[in-house]
Automatic annotation (TrEMBL):
Protein name, per record: 5-methyltetrahydropteroyltriglutamate--homocysteine methyltransferase
Organismal lineage: Bacteria, Pseudomonadati, Pseudomonadota, Gammaproteobacteria, Kangiellales
Biological function: Catalyzes the transfer of a methyl group from 5-methyltetrahydrofolate to homocysteine resulting in methionine formation.
Binding residues for 5-methyltetrahydropteroyltri-L-glutamate: 16-19, 116, 121, 523-524, 569, 613
Chain ranges of the Cobalamin-independent methionine synthase MetE N-terminal domain: 4-316
Record-linked CDD domains: CIMS_C_terminal_like, CIMS_N_terminal_like
The organism of origin for this protein: Kangiella geojedonensis
Record: residues binding Zn(2+): 649, 651, 673, 734
Biological process annotations from GO: methionine biosynthetic process; methylation
């Protein structure tokens, strides 16, 4: 019989129960025991649902209180030395100190660096290594999950991040770089101890994940995989399912096939069905082949007929050794489509969230074992949905298509080169050296949320809602002027989310009530759905920006989200290429940029925090992506005058390899995350001799900790070692939406004071 399993399930709960439990615990409103009870309930619900829908194997280890990579660090005893000072007397609070710098118990400390998980919007906590790194098992987070799952089923599969990927994800923070692979022999021994423990627990299968196999790896890392699994597979005592996702591994299949492994998982969604032919030539039919054919990263219903056709040949070859699964963890999907009450019937019929994807995996396995008749109703519903989506009149707009077809290269070019624009802007704005600003958002207060809820429920009318938001804008402007910032923002009080807000103002987008997806920790996002051609309905931000500018003599930035980020942080349609969708969005944003300029807003920020995120994992595919993503940004910004200053913002990604493309965006000012990584990113900008202006973040807003003036000063001084002072801006890492005013006021005051002091020191 073909077997069904899942690589992982959402851990936030159907109504974001984990988010609210975490935040209550951090505010010391609930106990650790109550937090653990919520976690236990979410896992119980996930596993019970999987079993009820017909999934054969329960996956354990996919749950996390904050991040799966941080969980692995705890499992392996990797705790940076600075967290030993002022530590709490319990594991969970020390765990949160590493993630966010603060917990109910233990002193505040600078948290570990956070960055994007491959090409997703999920963030992980970067492991920190040193040359004398020691590893030791700590099962306190994992063991309770194993015990809980074993009460539900005898078929329990444990999920682990593999040792080679774990090393690849980490970095040295306090020492000069060293070869991380030198730590592999000791790390493998620790994994052997872990696998032995799991064997003693009666675990038969371990899903050991090595997603770096989807990357272009040099020989040293490929050899490391061989070394690790030659040792681990030799006498593991448990069966190892080597798990890959986010791309193809055809270039490494011959090496992988030689390893003493018991199974292999492939991502057919990102890697393509053509992998199956390569696998049949390399992977023994005596071993398990797990096929990830249900998309774990998008929300469209699976074409069950096409999936069955793709699986049949593998079933003939692998028989009972064929497993069916999602392409990757369903962590990246919303929880349950059945919670949605406001989507129309046609659109809803096209969709599948995590619970529906679980059913699709179970159905495909059932059909392979018992024939198509066994899932007749599911197949019929799938066929109807596929046909409906293809023929629906709501998907295509001829006016949008014609406008995209008519785009000229001149529309993607600023009127003058940056050197000329810089002189014009300095004469026009006369901003001080080391000008201070923020990234855009200010705290989302209870009054903002109450006003938004009241407006949506029609308890207040549009005029009352506008007045409520204007009051928030007034406060944001007043606070910034009192603090002494040089370039202000309106605070984005009207926005629920930086992508969802814009999607609501654009044709071709749909929205959910409960389509939440975890980004990191308690931070969840609700991506809009791009189902059709995109165009702007009307001006989106102009009135809010005009109002904010009327309140101050200082410049107030217009704030927009860029085309690549809107695309990346939405669930995109599958019938149109990403470049075409990006250009549609870019044209809508271009209209907004020009309207802002016409209304006197001549500092405009178009954020692209996801610019690095969509970068293909394979180098051969990257130039094409970088070309169209740069072109889309330029299309949205290039129509303005030389004296209009275009800003962009990027955060929590590694930019070293794409610095030339960042320069080709031709933004006048770029702001970037850099405080958690001690400004190390600036070396890249220095080596490249980045020509435009840059604002390295000097305030880590993802931690509740308030940086001191001296700490900010030190970061400014570090930045000045890499970037000429006349190119530098001073700003936080990211928007301040998730913080509160009691944290924001002193932090920004320290930022402004440090910048003022640095102006005097660096120009003396």
């Amino acid at each position: 019989m073909a077997q069904s399993h899942l690589l992982g399930l959402p851990r936030i709960g159907a109504k974001r129960e984990l988010k609210f439990a975490l935040e209550k615990y951090w505010r010391e409103e609930t106990s650790q025991e109550e937090l653990q009870q919520v976690a236990h309930s979410i896992r119980q619900q996930n596993w019970s649902t999987a079993l009820d829908k017909g999934i054969d194997w329960l996956t354990v280890g996919d749950f996390s209180f904050y991040d799966q990579v941080l969980d692995t660090s705890i499992l392996l005893g990797v705790t940076p030395e600075r967290f030993e000072n002022g530590k709490a007397d319990n594991l969970l609070d020390n765990y949160f100190r590493i993630a966010r710098g603060s917990a109910p118990q233990g002193s505040q400390v600078q948290p570990s660096e956070m960055t994007k998980w491959f090409n997703t919007n999920y963030h992980y906590i970067v492991p920190e290594f040193n040359q004398e790194q020691q590893f030791s098992l700590n099962l306190d987070l994992l063991q309770p999950q194993i015990d809980q799952a074993k009460d539900l089923s005898s078929k329990v599969k444990v999920q682990l991040i593999g040792p080679v990927t774990y090393l690849w994800l980490g970095k040295s923070r306090d020492q000069t770089d060293f070869n991380k692979l030198g730590l592999l022999p000791q790390l493998v021994k620790t994994y052997q101890q872990l696998l032995n423990h799991l064997e003693q627990q009666g675990i038969e299968w371990v899903q050991i994940e090595e997603p770096i196999l989807a990357l272009d790896l040099d020989d040293s890392w490929v050899n490391a995989v061989t070394q690790a699994y030659t040792e681990l597979g030799a006498d593991a005592g448990v069966k190892l399912l080597l798990t890959t996702y986010f791309g193809h591994i055809t270039d490494k299949l011959d090496r992988i096939a030689e390893l003493p492994l018991d199974g292999l998982h492939l991502d057919l969604v990102s890697g393509g069905n053509e992998q199956l032919a390569e696998v049949a030539q390399n992977w023994p039919k005596s071993k398990v082949l797990s096929v990830g054919i249900v998309n774990g990263r998008n929300i469209w219903r699976n074409d069950l007929k096409s999936s069955l056709d793709a699986l049949k040949q593998s079933k003939e070859r692998y028989g009972d050794n064929l497993w069916v699964s999602s392409s990757c963890s369903l962590l990246h999907s919303p929880v349950d489509l059945n919670s949605e009450q406001q989507l129309d019937d046609e659109l809803q019929s096209w969709l599948a969230f995590a619970e529906q994807k679980v059913q699709e995996v179970a159905d495909l396995s059932k059909a392979l074992n018992h024939g198509s008749e066994a899932i007749k109703e599911s197949l019929q519903a799938s066929d109807v949905a596929v046909a409906s989506k293809k023929s629906s009149s709501r998907v295509h707009n001829s006016n949008v298509q014609q406008r995209v077809a008519a785009i000229s290269e001149l529309e993607r070019q600023r009127k003058s080169e940056f050197a000329q624009r810089k002189n014009a802007q300095r004469e026009h704005f006369r901003f001080p050296l080391l000008a201070t600003t923020t990234i855009g958002s200010f705290p989302q207060t209870d009054s903002i949320r109450q006003a938004r809820r009241a407006f949506k429920s029609k308890e207040i009318d549009e005029q009352q809602y506008t007045q409520a938001i204007q009051q928030e804008i007034q406060q944001a402007i007043h606070e910034q002027e009192a603090i002494g910032l040089d370039v202000l923002v309106h605070g984005e009080a009207e926005r629920n989310d930086m992508v969802e807000y814009f999607g609501e103002q654009l044709n071709g987008f749909a929205f959910t009530q409960f389509g939440w997806v975890q980004s990191y920790g308690s931070r969840c996002v609700k991506p809009p759905i791009i189902y059709g051609d995109v165009s702007r309905k009307q001006a989106i931000t102009v009135e809010w920006s005009k109002y904010a500018q009327s309140l101050s003599e200082k410049k107030v930035k217009g704030m927009l989200t860029g085309p690549t980020t809107i695309l990346a942080w939405s669930f995109e349609r599958e019938d149109l290429s990403a470049p075409q969708i990006a250009d549609q969005i870019a044209l809508a944003l271009r209209d907004e940029v020009l309207d802002l300029e016409k209304n006197g807003i001549d500092v405009i920020q178009i954020d692209e925090p996801a610019f690095r995120e969509l970068l293909p994992l394979r180098k051969s595919e990257q130039p094409q992506y970088l070309e169209w993503s740069v072109n889309a940004f330029r299309l949205s910004t290039a129509g303005v005058a030389d004296t209009t200053q275009i800003h962009t913002h990027m955060c929590y990604s590694e930019f070293n390899e794409i610095i030339d493309s960042i320069a080709r965006l031709d933004a006048d000012v770029i702001t970037i995350e850099s405080s958690r990584s001690d400004m190390e990113l600036l070396q890249t900008f220095n080596d490249f001799q980045y020509p435009n202006e840059i604002g390295p973040g000097v305030y880590d807003i993802h931690s509740p900790r308030i940086p001191t003036k001296d700490e900010v000063s030190e970061l400014i001084q570090q930045a000045a070692k890499h970037i000429p002072v006349d190119q530098l801006w001073v700003n936080p890492d990211c928007g301040l939406k998730t913080r509160n005013w009691d944290q924001v006021r002193p932090a920004l005051k320290n930022l402004v004071d440090a910048a003022t002091e640095a102006r005097q020191q660096l120009t003396a």
